[in-house]
Amino acid sequence: MVAAGAISLPIWISTSTSTKITAYYNVKPRISYPLKTPRNAVGPILFNKSHSLYPLSTFERNERHEHHFTPKAVSSSSVESAEEPATKVKFQRSLSLPGCSTSLSLLGTGYREKVFAIIGVKVYAAGLYINDSVFSRLDTWRGRSAAEIQQDTSLFNMIFEANLEKSLRIVLVRDIDGKTFWDALDEAISPRIKSPTAEDKAALSTFRGVFQGKPLKKETSIFLTWINPTKMLVSLSFDGMPSSVDATIESTNVASALFDVFLGGDPVSPSLKASVANGLEAALK
């Protein structure tokens, strides 16, 4: 029996299997053990430069669920979108975005979690999209494992510095006001810019203006698109794909700092970087 007005919070803890506690304030927690994901489960597909298909299966490694790209056959219905397992958010496998000259392909997905009073709360899911041409520039890393790729900062620097479009799609999984979202993002960006120039400050001001005064509802999508290492486009969509660009950020320091926030040495979403590393491993076999 759950008391009237009780609030439910799902909490994942580390055990030999993935364990979920559904906790209600003022009520004794209830523990449930979900079924493990089958090792042959079919999930997201990665397009490599020859357009081969790599579905994404979920498996348990070191007692934690991770993404892993493995070549398997998939049904046509699974080609259209890929589900981020922790949040159940679906990502299209390819996107055509305002300001981009070509469609971009999904490379990996993950989620962002914030801890409040020792309770981890998922804030958003994220998916990284890239121009498939980038694979032709990464021959040096062919045959490397995902673990090696994930630790190699030079590879991610190469991806960022490539004069090819890439985009991060963020999908909110809870309501949040624009100022709170920006403050959290700025908290991660600013320390990565040691001596901001006037150009950097102007870019950050423009970036902040996109979110000020906007209530960002659950399922809102935020697109951060790097056209090149010096130019980034910001688009918001409250009901699907964006039809226009809300802001243009022209600052190498801001653009590189934001890329580092998600794919650098201390990413805000470790699950996203791990998934991207697995995608690169499969594409660079």
From TrEMBL:
Domain Chalcone isomerase, first and last residues per copy: 88-281
Taxonomic superkingdom: Eukaryota
A GO term, aspect molecular function: intramolecular lyase activity
GO BP terms in the entry: fatty acid metabolic process
Record-linked Pfam families: Chalcone
GO cellular component terms given for this protein: chloroplast stroma
Family: Belongs to the chalcone isomerase family.
Protein name stated in the entry: Chalcone-flavonone isomerase family protein
Upper taxonomic lineage: Eukaryota, Viridiplantae, Streptophyta, Embryophyta, Tracheophyta
Gene field: LOC107775821
